[in-house]
Amino acid sequence: MATEDKLQRSLFDEVMVPCYAPMDIIPVRGQGSRLWDQQQREYIDFAGGIAVSCLGHCHPRMVAALTEQAQQLWHLSNVMTNEPALRLADKLTQLTFADKVFFANSGAEANEAALKLARRYAVDNFSAEKDQIIAFNHGFHGRTFFTVTVGGQSSYSDGFGPKPQAVTHIPYNDVAAIEALIGDKTCAVMMEPLQGEGGVISPSLEFVERVRQLCDQHQALLIFDEVQTGNGRTGDLFAYQGLGVTPDILTTAKSLGGGFPVAAMLTTASLASHLKVGTHGSTYGGNPLACAVAEAVVDEISQPAVLAGVKQRELWFREALTQINSRYPIFSEIRGKGLLLGAVLTPEWQGRARDILVAAGNEGLMVLVAGTDVVRFTPSLVIEKNDIDEGMQRLEAAIATLYNYHC
């Protein structure tokens, strides 16, 4: 059994499956948008656990919800329902286009449910031959074998044997490509309404609207993966609301629980009817603990003042990054929406996004990457202005060190 002094980064290599290459620091405490490691060194968090910690660390409303529920009921499975799940599902349907909710534990599970529903809908209404799923290059939809195959990054899905079939990838934002491909054998189009892992790439309105039209024309379902864009991240409760294009199925996770594992697939009553008793399920999905926390998160982030605050914080981030870039020109553009932003590296700095991540960490700032050429920012939706200002000072110090060495 590990003693306190053995709980170091080296122990990870001894006891953990080597799927990850974590940083050397081990955070032990968090409050708001600040973290402290084992040596009590402080960090400002612009990463938010990869767009998860939407209210920062240990938000009092979340702590209260978890503490209260922990003293009442933890788990039942889906042999029974429970009050927190019913309240959360009711709120999600009231706040969105959806009539029905399926709860799961992760974005991959929610996406798995969405894809299975699309295939079942096609089988029930047309035939098993209507099975084509169209997805997009550089998309990301999870790590189950089905979702990683639908995701448009072959490096994640290669090397595991035969893949699920009838999945086709085309370029994102390419209207001509989807017009040429979609047909009567297409059962679903799955897309992020703003690509996150693929480089923080926004869709054009023309593209999204045309995808919706083509899905209607060919009786295919439109699935929006809002695992990263949902729950206020773009300044709307869900990104589809800001685009004015409504999907048939929506998936959400990450910030839905603000750090507690929970996910949901949202859809209409007519589509939901195709998942009958026994066709799909989840042991932990919709458990009282997760749903109680998620309800607190939804209550908080759905407030108009919080959503307006996301748009204000986007401006603060863009202004600060532009100022840094005027002194150390390494970014070609700042793209994204709300607090899902990507700083794209210039050709001279291509491939060095992780270098910036590491340098920022050395200065006491946590950021992310999206591929090798984009530095990604997904902070708390309620991050304080002084945390942004100080974090940007640390980012500039990190960039200055690299820039001066590079030059």
Automatic annotation (TrEMBL):
Record keywords: Amino-acid biosynthesis, Aminotransferase, Arginine biosynthesis, Cytoplasm, Pyridoxal phosphate, Transferase
Residues binding pyridoxal 5'-phosphate, per UniProt: 107-108, 140, 225-228, 283
EC number: 2.6.1.11
This protein's record includes keyword Heme: no
Cellular component GO terms held in the UniProt record: cytoplasm
GO biological process, one term: L-arginine biosynthetic process
Gene Ontology MF terms in the entry: identical protein binding; N2-acetyl-L-ornithine:2-oxoglutarate 5-aminotransferase activity; pyridoxal phosphate binding
Annotated cofactor note: Binds 1 pyridoxal phosphate per subunit.
CDD domains listed in its UniProt record: OAT_like
Cited Gene3D superfamilies: Aspartate Aminotransferase, domain 1, Type I PLP-dependent aspartate aminotransferase-like (Major domain)
Pfam families per the UniProt record, alphabetical: Aminotran_3
UniProt-listed InterPro entries: Ac/SucOrn_transaminase_bac, AcOrn/SuccOrn_fam, Aminotrans_3, Aminotrans_3_PPA_site, Class-III_PLP-dep_AT, PyrdxlP-dep_Trfase, PyrdxlP-dep_Trfase_major, PyrdxlP-dep_Trfase_small
Superkingdom, taxonomy of origin: Bacteria
Pathway linked to the protein: Amino-acid biosynthesis; L-arginine biosynthesis; N(2)-acetyl-L-ornithine from L-glutamate: step 4/4
SUPFAM superfamilies: PLP-dependent transferases
Subcellular location per the Swiss-Prot or TrEMBL entry: Cytoplasm
Cofactor(s) needed: pyridoxal 5'-phosphate
Catalytic activity: N(2)-acetyl-L-ornithine + 2-oxoglutarate = N-acetyl-L-glutamate 5-semialdehyde + L-glutamate
Modified positions (N6-(pyridoxal phosphate)lysine) in chain numbering: 254
Subunit structure: Homodimer.
HAMAP family: ArgD_aminotrans_3
Similarity remark: Belongs to the class-III pyridoxal-phosphate-dependent aminotransferase family. ArgD subfamily.
Note: May also have succinyldiaminopimelate aminotransferase activity, thus carrying out the corresponding step in lysine biosynthesis.
Name recorded for this polypeptide: Acetylornithine aminotransferase
Gene source species: Photobacterium aquimaris
Species classification: Bacteria, Pseudomonadati, Pseudomonadota, Gammaproteobacteria, Vibrionales
Gene name of this polypeptide: aruC
